Protein backbone atom coordinates (compact mmCIF):
# COMPACT_ATOMS: atom_id res chain seq x y z
CA UNK A 1 0.00 0.00 0.00
CA UNK A 2 1.30 3.48 -0.88
CA UNK A 3 2.32 5.36 2.29
CA UNK A 4 0.84 8.53 0.79
CA UNK A 5 -2.62 6.93 1.15
CA UNK A 6 -2.19 5.94 4.85
CA UNK A 7 -4.60 7.61 7.31
CA UNK A 8 -3.11 10.63 9.12
CA UNK A 9 -3.65 8.97 12.52
CA UNK A 10 -1.51 6.01 11.46
CA UNK A 11 1.36 8.41 10.78
CA UNK A 12 0.89 10.61 13.86
CA UNK A 13 0.78 7.85 16.49
CA UNK A 14 4.27 6.43 15.70
CA UNK A 15 5.67 9.97 15.53
CA UNK A 16 4.19 10.66 18.97
CA UNK A 17 5.94 7.64 20.52
CA UNK A 18 9.20 8.50 18.77
CA UNK A 19 9.01 12.06 20.15
CA UNK A 20 8.16 10.83 23.66
CA UNK A 21 11.02 8.32 23.63
CA UNK A 22 13.54 10.90 22.40
CA UNK A 23 12.36 13.33 25.06
CA UNK A 24 12.86 10.64 27.73
CA UNK A 25 16.36 9.94 26.41
CA UNK A 26 17.21 13.65 26.49
CA UNK A 27 15.95 13.86 30.07
CA UNK A 28 18.13 10.92 31.10
CA UNK A 29 21.12 12.50 29.38
CA UNK A 30 20.69 15.64 31.48
CA UNK A 31 21.33 13.61 34.67
CA UNK A 32 25.07 13.38 35.17
CA UNK A 33 26.86 10.81 37.31
CA UNK A 34 30.35 10.35 38.74
CA UNK A 35 33.21 9.32 36.51
CA UNK A 36 35.19 6.11 36.87
CA UNK A 37 38.96 6.16 36.71
CA UNK A 38 41.59 3.65 35.67
CA UNK A 39 44.21 2.77 38.25
CA UNK A 40 46.83 3.54 35.61
CA UNK A 41 45.36 6.78 34.29
CA UNK A 42 43.60 8.10 37.36
CA UNK A 43 46.06 10.75 38.52
CA UNK A 44 45.00 13.47 36.08
CA UNK A 45 42.79 15.89 38.01
CA UNK A 46 39.43 16.18 36.24
CA UNK A 47 37.08 18.07 38.55
CA UNK A 48 33.34 18.15 37.93
CA UNK A 49 30.55 19.75 39.93
CA UNK A 50 27.17 18.01 40.06
CA UNK A 51 24.15 19.98 41.30
CA UNK A 52 21.29 18.22 43.09
CA UNK A 53 18.14 20.12 44.07
CA UNK A 54 15.26 19.33 46.42
CA UNK A 55 12.89 19.39 43.41
CA UNK A 56 14.90 16.64 41.65
CA UNK A 57 17.08 14.99 44.31
CA UNK A 58 18.07 11.94 42.27
CA UNK A 59 19.24 13.78 39.15
CA UNK A 60 22.64 15.46 39.08
CA UNK A 61 23.05 18.47 36.81
CA UNK A 62 26.61 18.90 35.51
CA UNK A 63 27.73 22.51 35.96
CA UNK A 64 30.23 23.37 33.27
CA UNK A 65 32.79 26.13 33.67
CA UNK A 66 31.06 28.37 31.14
CA UNK A 67 27.48 27.71 32.23
CA UNK A 68 25.35 30.36 33.83
CA UNK A 69 24.75 29.05 37.35
CA UNK A 70 21.48 30.92 37.66
CA UNK A 71 20.12 29.08 34.62
CA UNK A 72 21.11 25.68 35.97
CA UNK A 73 18.41 25.28 38.61
CA UNK A 74 20.68 26.57 41.38
CA UNK A 75 18.76 28.69 43.91
CA UNK A 76 20.96 31.44 45.29
CA UNK A 77 18.48 32.20 48.07
CA UNK A 78 19.05 28.77 49.66
CA UNK A 79 21.96 27.37 51.61
CA UNK A 80 24.55 25.32 49.72
CA UNK A 81 26.09 22.02 50.81
CA UNK A 82 29.27 21.00 48.96
CA UNK A 83 30.33 17.36 49.36
CA UNK A 84 34.01 16.47 48.80
CA UNK A 85 34.97 12.80 48.74
CA UNK A 86 38.42 11.45 49.57
CA UNK A 87 40.90 8.93 48.21
CA UNK A 88 39.35 6.38 45.82
CA UNK A 89 41.56 3.29 45.83
CA UNK A 90 39.62 1.57 43.04
CA UNK A 91 38.73 4.61 40.98
CA UNK A 92 34.99 4.19 41.52
CA UNK A 93 32.13 6.45 42.54
CA UNK A 94 31.76 6.65 46.36
CA UNK A 95 29.13 4.10 47.39
CA UNK A 96 27.74 6.44 50.07
CA UNK A 97 27.39 9.60 47.99
CA UNK A 98 23.77 9.09 46.86
CA UNK A 99 22.61 8.35 50.42
CA UNK A 100 24.29 11.50 51.76
CA UNK A 101 22.76 13.66 49.01
CA UNK A 102 19.30 12.23 49.70
CA UNK A 103 19.71 12.72 53.46
CA UNK A 104 20.72 16.38 53.09
CA UNK A 105 17.87 17.15 50.72
CA UNK A 106 15.46 15.23 52.94
CA UNK A 107 16.00 17.48 55.96
CA UNK A 108 16.76 20.87 54.43
CA UNK A 109 15.71 22.93 51.43
CA UNK A 110 19.20 23.49 50.05
CA UNK A 111 21.41 23.18 47.00
CA UNK A 112 23.67 20.13 47.17
CA UNK A 113 26.79 20.09 45.02
CA UNK A 114 28.87 16.93 44.81
CA UNK A 115 32.49 17.42 43.77
CA UNK A 116 33.64 14.61 41.49
CA UNK A 117 37.43 14.36 41.53
CA UNK A 118 37.63 10.57 41.19
CA UNK A 119 40.34 10.84 38.52
CA UNK A 120 42.60 12.86 40.78
CA UNK A 121 41.83 10.72 43.84
CA UNK A 122 42.73 7.35 42.29
CA UNK A 123 46.01 5.39 42.10
CA UNK A 124 48.51 5.98 44.94
CA UNK A 125 47.47 7.84 48.10
CA UNK A 126 50.51 10.19 48.03
CA UNK A 127 49.53 11.22 44.49
CA UNK A 128 46.01 12.05 45.67
CA UNK A 129 47.52 14.14 48.47
CA UNK A 130 49.55 16.04 45.87
CA UNK A 131 46.26 16.91 44.10
CA UNK A 132 44.69 18.41 47.23
CA UNK A 133 46.01 21.93 46.68
CA UNK A 134 44.96 21.99 43.01
CA UNK A 135 41.52 20.66 43.92
CA UNK A 136 41.17 23.29 46.64
CA UNK A 137 41.91 26.03 44.11
CA UNK A 138 39.32 24.67 41.68
CA UNK A 139 36.63 24.48 44.36
CA UNK A 140 37.53 28.00 45.49
CA UNK A 141 37.14 29.23 41.94
CA UNK A 142 33.75 27.54 41.73
CA UNK A 143 32.63 29.14 45.03
CA UNK A 144 33.66 32.51 43.60
CA UNK A 145 31.06 31.95 40.88
CA UNK A 146 28.46 31.27 43.56
CA UNK A 147 29.32 34.47 45.40
CA UNK A 148 29.00 36.38 42.13
CA UNK A 149 25.30 35.46 41.90
CA UNK A 150 24.59 36.62 45.46
CA UNK A 151 25.32 33.57 47.60
CA UNK A 152 26.49 34.68 51.08
CA UNK A 153 29.76 33.13 52.28
CA UNK A 154 28.08 32.18 55.56
CA UNK A 155 25.50 30.01 53.75
CA UNK A 156 28.14 27.65 52.30
CA UNK A 157 28.71 24.35 54.13
CA UNK A 158 31.56 22.08 53.05
CA UNK A 159 31.28 18.38 53.96
CA UNK A 160 34.59 16.60 53.43
CA UNK A 161 35.20 12.88 53.81
CA UNK A 162 38.68 11.68 54.82
CA UNK A 163 41.10 13.47 52.48
CA UNK A 164 38.19 15.65 51.37
CA UNK A 165 38.03 17.14 54.87
CA UNK A 166 41.49 18.69 54.45
CA UNK A 167 40.51 19.90 50.97
CA UNK A 168 37.63 21.70 52.68
CA UNK A 169 40.08 23.16 55.16
CA UNK A 170 42.22 24.62 52.36
CA UNK A 171 39.15 26.08 50.65
CA UNK A 172 38.05 27.63 53.92
CA UNK A 173 41.51 29.07 54.41
CA UNK A 174 41.39 30.66 50.94
CA UNK A 175 38.25 32.47 52.11
CA UNK A 176 39.91 33.48 55.39
CA UNK A 177 37.53 31.46 57.55
CA UNK A 178 34.41 33.33 56.39
CA UNK A 179 32.58 30.29 54.99
CA UNK A 180 29.70 29.18 57.20
CA UNK A 181 30.60 25.63 58.14
CA UNK A 182 32.95 22.72 57.50
CA UNK A 183 32.14 19.15 58.55
CA UNK A 184 35.03 16.70 58.44
CA UNK A 185 33.98 13.04 58.40
CA UNK A 186 36.95 11.13 59.83
CA UNK A 187 39.56 13.52 58.39
CA UNK A 188 42.51 11.65 56.92
CA UNK A 189 45.44 10.93 59.23
CA UNK A 190 48.32 9.77 56.96
CA UNK A 191 50.39 12.79 55.85
CA UNK A 192 48.29 15.13 58.05
CA UNK A 193 48.77 14.22 61.72
CA UNK A 194 51.96 16.27 61.91
CA UNK A 195 50.93 18.86 59.33
CA UNK A 196 50.63 22.52 60.27
CA UNK A 197 47.15 24.03 60.70
CA UNK A 198 47.66 25.81 57.36
CA UNK A 199 48.09 22.43 55.62
CA UNK A 200 45.09 20.65 57.16
CA UNK A 201 41.61 21.25 58.53
CA UNK A 202 41.60 23.47 61.62
CA UNK A 203 39.09 25.66 63.54
CA UNK A 204 40.12 28.83 61.71
CA UNK A 205 38.88 27.53 58.34
CA UNK A 206 35.19 28.44 58.82
CA UNK A 207 32.82 30.13 61.24
CA UNK A 208 32.07 26.66 62.61
CA UNK A 209 34.25 23.59 62.10
CA UNK A 210 33.29 20.14 63.36
CA UNK A 211 34.82 16.70 62.87
CA UNK A 212 33.64 13.15 63.53
CA UNK A 213 36.44 10.70 64.39
CA UNK A 214 35.94 6.94 63.99
CA UNK A 215 39.32 5.51 62.93
CA UNK A 216 41.95 7.64 64.67
CA UNK A 217 44.32 4.69 65.10
CA UNK A 218 44.51 3.95 61.37
CA UNK A 219 43.23 6.00 58.41
CA UNK A 220 41.77 8.88 60.44
CA UNK A 221 43.52 11.73 62.23
CA UNK A 222 43.81 11.46 66.02
CA UNK A 223 44.23 15.14 66.92
CA UNK A 224 41.28 17.56 67.19
CA UNK A 225 40.85 19.74 64.10
CA UNK A 226 37.63 21.70 64.70
CA UNK A 227 35.75 23.75 67.23
CA UNK A 228 34.09 20.46 68.24
CA UNK A 229 35.57 17.02 67.62
CA UNK A 230 33.21 14.08 68.12
CA UNK A 231 35.01 10.85 69.09
CA UNK A 232 32.57 8.00 68.50
CA UNK A 233 33.23 5.10 70.88
CA UNK A 234 36.58 6.67 71.68
CA UNK A 235 37.29 7.42 68.02
CA UNK A 236 38.93 4.08 67.21
CA UNK A 237 37.31 0.66 66.97
CA UNK A 238 33.64 0.86 66.04
CA UNK A 239 31.04 -1.72 67.18
CA UNK A 240 29.79 -3.89 64.33
CA UNK A 241 33.02 -3.62 62.34
CA UNK A 242 35.01 -6.83 61.71
CA UNK A 243 38.08 -7.44 63.85
CA UNK A 244 39.76 -10.06 61.66
CA UNK A 245 41.75 -9.41 58.49
CA UNK A 246 39.99 -12.35 56.85
CA UNK A 247 37.05 -9.98 56.30
CA UNK A 248 39.14 -8.31 53.58
CA UNK A 249 38.44 -4.76 52.40
CA UNK A 250 35.57 -4.31 54.88
CA UNK A 251 38.03 -4.96 57.71
CA UNK A 252 40.28 -2.18 56.42
CA UNK A 253 37.67 0.48 55.72
CA UNK A 254 34.75 -0.15 58.10
CA UNK A 255 35.91 2.02 61.01
CA UNK A 256 36.95 4.83 58.66
CA UNK A 257 33.65 4.89 56.78
CA UNK A 258 31.55 4.67 59.94
CA UNK A 259 31.76 8.47 60.25
CA UNK A 260 29.95 8.84 56.92
CA UNK A 261 27.24 6.29 57.69
CA UNK A 262 26.78 7.72 61.18
CA UNK A 263 26.38 11.24 59.80
CA UNK A 264 23.81 10.06 57.25
CA UNK A 265 21.93 8.29 60.02
CA UNK A 266 22.03 11.39 62.21
CA UNK A 267 20.41 13.36 59.39
CA UNK A 268 17.76 10.71 58.70
CA UNK A 269 16.72 9.74 62.23
CA UNK A 270 15.04 11.65 64.99
CA UNK A 271 17.11 10.40 67.94
CA UNK A 272 19.54 13.10 69.12
CA UNK A 273 23.23 12.23 68.69
CA UNK A 274 24.39 14.21 71.72
CA UNK A 275 27.99 14.17 72.92
CA UNK A 276 29.75 15.21 76.12
CA UNK A 277 33.06 17.01 76.70
CA UNK A 278 35.58 14.91 78.61
CA UNK A 279 39.37 14.72 79.09
CA UNK A 280 39.38 11.10 77.84
CA UNK A 281 37.15 8.25 76.73
CA UNK A 282 38.19 6.31 79.83
CA UNK A 283 36.86 9.08 82.07
CA UNK A 284 33.68 9.21 80.00
CA UNK A 285 33.00 5.48 80.48
CA UNK A 286 33.75 5.86 84.20
CA UNK A 287 30.88 8.32 84.57
CA UNK A 288 33.04 11.38 85.26
CA UNK A 289 31.65 13.55 82.41
CA UNK A 290 27.93 13.98 82.91
CA UNK A 291 27.01 17.40 81.58
CA UNK A 292 28.19 20.11 79.20
CA UNK A 293 28.68 22.98 81.64
CA UNK A 294 32.39 23.25 80.91
CA UNK A 295 33.01 24.62 78.33
CA UNK A 296 29.58 24.73 76.65
CA UNK A 297 27.49 26.28 79.44
CA UNK A 298 25.08 23.28 79.48
CA UNK A 299 24.31 23.35 75.74
CA UNK A 300 25.52 19.91 74.66
CA UNK A 301 26.76 19.56 71.04
CA UNK A 302 24.63 17.42 68.72
CA UNK A 303 25.58 15.83 65.39
CA UNK A 304 23.42 17.16 62.55
CA UNK A 305 22.60 20.50 60.96
CA UNK A 306 21.79 22.62 64.02
CA UNK A 307 23.61 25.96 63.99
CA UNK A 308 26.97 25.58 65.74
CA UNK A 309 26.06 22.00 66.60
CA UNK A 310 23.28 23.24 68.89
CA UNK A 311 25.62 25.27 71.09
CA UNK A 312 24.12 28.43 72.52
CA UNK A 313 27.33 30.43 72.72
CA UNK A 314 28.53 33.66 71.15
CA UNK A 315 32.20 32.65 71.19
CA UNK A 316 32.99 29.04 70.40
CA UNK A 317 35.85 27.22 72.14
CA UNK A 318 38.34 25.43 69.90
CA UNK A 319 39.46 21.81 69.61
CA UNK A 320 37.11 20.45 72.28
CA UNK A 321 36.96 16.66 72.40
CA UNK A 322 33.47 15.30 72.97
CA UNK A 323 32.48 11.66 73.35
CA UNK A 324 29.45 9.49 72.71
CA UNK A 325 28.77 5.78 72.38
CA UNK A 326 26.83 4.23 69.51
CA UNK A 327 25.12 0.98 68.57
CA UNK A 328 26.66 -1.45 66.08
CA UNK A 329 24.25 -0.65 63.24
CA UNK A 330 21.95 2.11 61.99
CA UNK A 331 20.38 4.17 63.38
CA UNK A 332 23.34 3.91 65.80
CA UNK A 333 21.69 5.93 68.56
CA UNK A 334 21.83 4.76 72.17
CA UNK A 335 20.76 6.41 75.40
CA UNK A 336 23.51 7.32 77.85
CA UNK A 337 22.80 6.74 81.55
CA UNK A 338 24.78 7.14 84.74
CA UNK A 339 24.57 4.25 87.20
CA UNK A 340 25.84 4.39 90.78
CA UNK A 341 26.07 2.09 93.78
CA UNK A 342 26.48 3.59 97.25
CA UNK A 343 27.89 1.21 99.88
CA UNK A 344 26.46 1.30 103.36
CA UNK A 345 29.93 0.81 104.82
CA UNK A 346 33.50 0.71 103.59
CA UNK A 347 35.01 -2.59 102.54
CA UNK A 348 38.58 -3.82 102.93
CA UNK A 349 38.91 -4.93 99.31
CA UNK A 350 37.90 -3.69 95.88
CA UNK A 351 34.25 -4.36 95.02
CA UNK A 352 33.35 -5.23 91.43
CA UNK A 353 29.70 -4.51 90.58
CA UNK A 354 27.94 -5.47 87.33
CA UNK A 355 24.71 -3.66 86.46
CA UNK A 356 22.35 -4.76 83.69
CA UNK A 357 19.32 -2.89 82.35
CA UNK A 358 16.57 -5.00 80.79
CA UNK A 359 13.76 -3.84 78.53
CA UNK A 360 11.63 -5.55 75.86
CA UNK A 361 13.88 -8.59 75.54
CA UNK A 362 16.98 -6.40 75.15
CA UNK A 363 19.67 -5.86 77.74
CA UNK A 364 22.84 -3.85 78.24
CA UNK A 365 25.45 -4.07 80.98
CA UNK A 366 28.35 -2.23 82.51
CA UNK A 367 30.76 -2.97 85.35
CA UNK A 368 32.73 -0.77 87.71
CA UNK A 369 34.98 -1.20 90.71
CA UNK A 370 34.51 0.53 94.06
CA UNK A 371 38.07 0.84 95.43
CA UNK A 372 38.65 -0.43 98.93
CA UNK A 373 37.81 2.02 101.71
CA UNK A 374 35.64 4.04 99.32
CA UNK A 375 31.85 4.26 99.37
CA UNK A 376 30.79 5.10 95.82
CA UNK A 377 31.15 3.38 92.47
CA UNK A 378 29.75 4.62 89.17
CA UNK A 379 29.90 4.12 85.43
CA UNK A 380 28.24 4.80 82.10
CA UNK A 381 25.60 2.41 80.78
CA UNK A 382 24.19 2.71 77.25
CA UNK A 383 20.94 1.10 76.12
CA UNK A 384 18.77 1.20 73.00
CA UNK A 385 15.80 2.32 75.14
CA UNK A 386 15.53 5.51 77.23
CA UNK A 387 15.70 5.20 80.99
CA UNK A 388 11.94 5.55 81.43
CA UNK A 389 11.42 2.42 79.29
CA UNK A 390 13.83 0.25 81.28
CA UNK A 391 11.72 -2.38 83.03
CA UNK A 392 14.22 -3.80 85.52
CA UNK A 393 17.79 -3.70 86.74
CA UNK A 394 19.93 -6.70 87.67
CA UNK A 395 22.89 -6.28 90.04
CA UNK A 396 25.66 -8.78 90.72
CA UNK A 397 28.89 -8.79 92.70
CA UNK A 398 31.93 -10.33 90.99
CA UNK A 399 34.92 -11.51 93.01
CA UNK A 400 38.39 -11.02 91.65
CA UNK A 401 39.32 -14.42 93.05
CA UNK A 402 37.19 -17.49 93.68
CA UNK A 403 35.75 -17.81 97.16
CA UNK A 404 33.59 -20.32 98.91
CA UNK A 405 30.01 -19.19 99.47
CA UNK A 406 30.34 -19.25 103.27
CA UNK A 407 33.38 -16.92 103.06
CA UNK A 408 31.58 -14.29 101.00
CA UNK A 409 30.60 -10.99 102.53
CA UNK A 410 27.46 -9.62 100.84
CA UNK A 411 27.55 -6.17 99.28
CA UNK A 412 24.96 -3.86 100.86
CA UNK A 413 23.96 -0.44 99.59
CA UNK A 414 21.74 1.72 97.40
CA UNK A 415 21.39 1.89 93.61
CA UNK A 416 20.85 5.18 91.74
CA UNK A 417 20.64 6.19 88.10
CA UNK A 418 20.00 9.18 85.82
CA UNK A 419 19.96 10.00 82.12
CA UNK A 420 22.71 12.14 80.63
CA UNK A 421 23.13 15.04 80.72
CA UNK A 422 22.80 15.01 84.49
CA UNK A 423 21.64 18.32 85.88
CA UNK A 424 23.36 18.77 89.23
CA UNK A 425 20.27 20.59 90.54
CA UNK A 426 18.08 17.56 89.95
CA UNK A 427 18.13 14.48 92.16
CA UNK A 428 19.00 11.12 90.71
CA UNK A 429 16.46 8.31 90.80
CA UNK A 430 17.38 5.92 93.61
CA UNK A 431 15.67 2.70 94.58
CA UNK A 432 14.22 3.22 98.07
CA UNK A 433 15.16 -0.16 99.49
CA UNK A 434 18.56 -1.27 100.73
CA UNK A 435 19.99 -3.88 98.35
CA UNK A 436 22.04 -6.92 99.27
CA UNK A 437 23.90 -8.52 96.38
CA UNK A 438 26.17 -11.53 96.05
CA UNK A 439 28.13 -13.19 93.28
CA UNK A 440 26.03 -16.36 93.31
CA UNK A 441 22.54 -14.85 93.21
CA UNK A 442 22.04 -11.85 90.88
CA UNK A 443 19.49 -9.42 92.32
CA UNK A 444 16.65 -8.34 90.01
CA UNK A 445 14.68 -5.19 90.82
CA UNK A 446 11.86 -3.50 88.95
CA UNK A 447 12.31 0.08 87.79
CA UNK A 448 9.40 2.46 87.49
CA UNK A 449 10.64 5.74 86.07
CA UNK A 450 8.16 8.14 84.51
CA UNK A 451 8.82 9.57 81.06
CA UNK A 452 8.95 13.37 80.84
Identify the notable features of this structure and list them briefly.
single chain, 452 residues, alpha/beta, ten-stranded mixed sheet, five-stranded antiparallel sheet, 9 helices, 19 strands, 26% strand, Phospholipase A1 member A, Lipase_N, glycoprotein, signal, lipid degradation
Please characterize this protein's 3D structure.
- The chain has helices spanning 8-30, 97-107, 118-121, 125-130, 132-148, 163-174, 249-268, 281-285, 293-296, and strands at residues 48-53, 56-63, 79-84, 110-116, 156-161, 181-185, 208-213, 228-232, 276-277, 320-324, 335-343, 351-359, 362-370, 376-383, 392-398, 411-419, 429-430, 435-437, 443-446.
- The chain is an alpha/beta fold and 452 residues long.
- Strands 2-1-4-3-5-6-7-8-10-9 form a ten-stranded mixed beta sheet. Strands 11, 14, 16, 17 and 18 form a five-stranded antiparallel beta sheet that branches.
- The N and C termini lie far apart (82 Å).
- Residues 22-332 form the Lipase domain.
- Keywords: Calcium, Disulfide bond, Glycoprotein, Hydrolase, Lipid degradation, Lipid metabolism, Metal-binding, Secreted, Signal.
Amino acid sequence: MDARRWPVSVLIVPLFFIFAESKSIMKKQQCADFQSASLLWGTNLQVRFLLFSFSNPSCGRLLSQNEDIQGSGFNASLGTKIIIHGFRALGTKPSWIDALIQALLGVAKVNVIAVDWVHGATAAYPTAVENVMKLGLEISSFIRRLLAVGVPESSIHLIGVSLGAHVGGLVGQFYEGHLGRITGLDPAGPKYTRATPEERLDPGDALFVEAIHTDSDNFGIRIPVGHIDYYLNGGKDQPGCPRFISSGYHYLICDHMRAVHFYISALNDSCPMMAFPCPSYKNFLAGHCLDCFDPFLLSCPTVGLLDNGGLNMKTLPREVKVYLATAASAPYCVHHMLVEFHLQQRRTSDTNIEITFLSNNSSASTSFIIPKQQMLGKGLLTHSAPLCQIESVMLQHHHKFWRRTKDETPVVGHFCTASLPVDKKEKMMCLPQVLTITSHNPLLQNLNIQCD
